[in-house]
Amino acid sequence: MTAATDATLFPPTPGRPDHVEPPRDADAVLDGLDPEQREVATALQGPVCVLAGAGTGKTRAITHRIAYGVRAGMLPPASVLAVTFTNRAAGEMRGRLRQLGATGVQARTFHSAALRQLQFFWPRAVGGELPQLLERKIQLVAEAAARSRIRLDRNELRDVTGEIEWSKVTQTTPEDYPAAVAKSSREAPRDPAETSRIFALYEQLKRDRSVIDFEDVLLLTVGVLQDRPDIADTVRGQYQHFVVDEYQDVSPLQQRLLELWLGDRDSLCVVGDASQTIYSFTGASPDHLLDFRTKHPDATVVKLVRDYRSTPQVVHLANGLLGQARGRAAEHRLELISQTGPGPDPVYAEYADEPAEAEGTARRIRELIDSGVPASGIAVLYRINAQSEIYEQALADAGVPYQLRGAERFFERAEVREAGVALRGAARAGGNDPLLEDAVDLPSQVRAVLTSRGWTTEPPAGSGAARDRWESLAALVRLAEDFRKARPQATLADLVAELDERANAQHAPTVEGVTLASLHSAKGLEWDAVFLVGLTEGMMPITYAKTDEQVEEERRLLYVGVTRARTHLGLSWALSRSPGGRASRRPSRFLNGLRPGSSASGARTAGGDGGVERGRSRKRRGPVRCRVCGRTLTDAGEMKLMRCEGCPSDLDEELYERLREWRSGQAQQLGQPAYCVFTDKTLMAIAETVPDSEAELSRISGVGARKLDRFGAAVLALCAGEEPVTEAVTEETEK
């Protein structure tokens, strides 16, 4: 992951050190700003609205605005309050202001600023000390549910907690919650009446124990400022100038607090982009940004559209994506203009199945790394976290280190670990487990066991923790189905062993590598290369996006994904879930008219598919057959071994152990996990075939040209019973 493009305060010049001294005077603060950024920086009077597209340097513009006002003597530092949404963003803003010589300015999150005021004024407004802040509300929600005689597992607790938070930031009371859900067309994760009861009892428990939660900080600050004009006057005497970043993400409660801070003044600068509104499920609304000019007719409005992040090719696609948008936010979209040099066209790739898509993506990433793009400058972005597992496996097989952002690794997720324990217990019990009485084959056994863990034939309505949990369990069910196709005689114990092997292969230490992340967690970040995967109907837009506005938010989510890329952009989809499956999927409607060979209506043009690449898949390579029994192989692990898991193995165990020991040493030298050298399956395949030439070694799955060049001589030496020459490997690595 990398810092924002505009992190450098001034354009680099020859011989200029990275650390810059504060500007000499106010005018020097304006050096290096483009005309629109300069207009923002010098607009110090009255309300100001900055509509800033992705990559246009909005943080640069507003920090220079504050610094220019401070250095020019027009904005006393202590009178300025800049608010944003994350501690990271607030910290970055404070750092930039210090470098610009604008010390003394307060840059905080809404909650941080409100908590400081509440702590200071509570004794005067209420008396005594402020109630203790509840760090984690989930335990109290669990108690409220139990007292309501409603059983909730950990994921359901997360859902209810999220609903309570949404209610509070939208200023919805427990009794009004069911009506508010219906009015907002939200898909509630459970019965609104039940959630309302839990919510009401949760609030009662807080009052009984004299504790407050995170949302109460805003609610109580609003209450104090509304009820005590003298305190409101004191706060307004302290802060006269306000700057709000990411204004499209403001909730109704935060907007109310901002209005109370302002009073009847208009010294307010807001910055945002309605096309990046993707958090409506948390109560965020772009309406405050879109209504700003109506509320403040005399406002100075500046549009930042010069994109310093992405190539013209990426920007063209981003503009095209929004060009098809509908709704109020779309009416205010910004047409970005790239300021960088040209780059490669976005690559659209269609694959026969999901494993082929993951392997193809990993192969492209390997090529980019070999061409000099750092692994940390590459990201794979998907719609839901349950999609990560297949990409974790594919990158591991390709020897590419990776890190997950905003989610646990698939096999480390609580529901997956719990499912593994349940499956292991059922495998040990065998026919004595009553859950398996009516199960006739391996998939039905897995479904029976996972039903006890919360899996159902149909997904739960809406999004949230319950949906995430279901997706993880559904991935295990699909894995069992694929495992049975590959090994019709496999038992539940065989599947458990397969899960253990996969988990072990992915329990590597965190390393600096390719980022795997959901589209939501990628907001605010950028990479040299971005791969947007799984772009099919039902995933993008997601199935539960029913209303026009929900579908449009999905389009904005894809737009955010596209605009994370600086240079390289890949977009891909798979026509079926598993190898040999029916090709019934369709590419996302959002790509209609943008991907080669498609029209805006989704119909194919006479020109065919144009520049859409046909990803290499198992079908195109022809069937891979077991070298022992001749059966066609479909499982990735079996294909690597070139034999069925159950067929006799002629593994040279001594060679296998020598290879593992050698791999351990190589991984230590490289500072990478062992799987980045070769996976266990690849080492097994080598120890079974015992190749005696580069040609034979290259035919083993997992030994590509790069690894053959780097490790081939050492592996062949081990196969011949000789000691490998490790120095050459180290030298090659350092080149």
UniProtKB/TrEMBL annotation:
The protein, known as: ATP-dependent DNA helicase UvrD2
UniProt KW Protease keyword: no
Residue ranges crossing the lipid bilayer per the database entry: none
UniProt cross-references to InterPro entries, sorted A to Z: DExx_box_DNA_helicase_dom_sf, DNA_helicase_UvrD-like_C, DNA_helicase_UvrD/REP, HRDC-like_sf, HRDC_dom, HRDC_dom_sf, P-loop_NTPase, UvrD-like_ATP-bd
Compositional bias segments (type: Basic and acidic residues): 16-25
The species this protein was found in: Streptomyces armeniacus
Keywords of this entry: ATP-binding, DNA damage, DNA repair, DNA-binding, Helicase, Hydrolase, Isomerase, Nucleotide-binding
SUPFAM superfamilies assigned to the protein according to its UniProt record, in alphabetical order: HRDC-like, P-loop containing nucleoside triphosphate hydrolases
Domain of life according to the entry: Bacteria
EC number: 5.6.2.4
Residue intervals of the HRDC domain: 649-729
Ranges of residues in domain UvrD-like helicase C-terminal: 312-567
Binding, ATP: 52-59
Catalytic activity: ATP + H2O = ADP + phosphate + H(+); Couples ATP hydrolysis with the unwinding of duplex DNA by translocating in the 3'-5' direction
Domain UvrD-like helicase ATP-binding residues, every copy: 31-311
